[in-house]
Amino acid sequence: MLQLFEPYNKDTNAQSGHLIEEIHMLVQGIRLSGFVYVVNGVSNINLLAHNEDGLPPLQIWEMARSVVEDYQEAISVNLLAYQQPNRGWEAPPPGFFKVNVFGASSLDGLGTSGVGVIIHDDSGSVIAALSKALPLQYPAAWTELFAMEQGVLLAQEMTLSKVIFESDAISVIQAISQDLFGSETGHLVQGIQLAKSSFLRCSFRHVKRDCNRAAHELAQLAKNSHASNVWKGVTPPFLVHLIQSGLG
Question: What's this model's pTM, rounded to 2 decimal places?
Fold first, then answer.
């Protein structure tokens, strides 16, 4: 362990004063990140050191070292807690269905756009999928909203009651969550909002692209082939490996 304080002097008062100064420097040098108890611990040491009956310097030293060790242990646990593993796609809670959607547009503005939708049950099994080519090339924001619209329509067609809709387009989730009807895509947002009443329970969530791979592949297929396909009760053959790898 790194030595954070200087060795003691022989004079007791000088030792106490020196320790207090070092502890204050320690506090200033540490970004606590919410570990309030560290501040409290150091404050207690400071009060004890100024007490008329003051503690021996060695005991102050041990208390300070204990505080530092507690902090180091706590921050290591905290970092581990916030290091989320890359789990990929996850099945919905029991009784729910999960609808993942994706909209694909060409970067050069040519060709057509495509949307992909895939629906899983709570066991992770695919119950439906859609790969749909749009008649024109649309901006990315429009295409992502079209994808969500198609996801809602497919879920209604499958008569699902408890549904979680996921997209890796944060703008889409924000528009739906905040009822943003004022933009040029407002009519799409409003249509999705109205459709929510057809479900017993539903929610809209943003996910990372790694958790939306299957919908991405379906959208790319539609964009590149200019064709539309629907699968019900089966997994699209070209997605079998992806689904089995837990990246659906």
Answer: 0.64
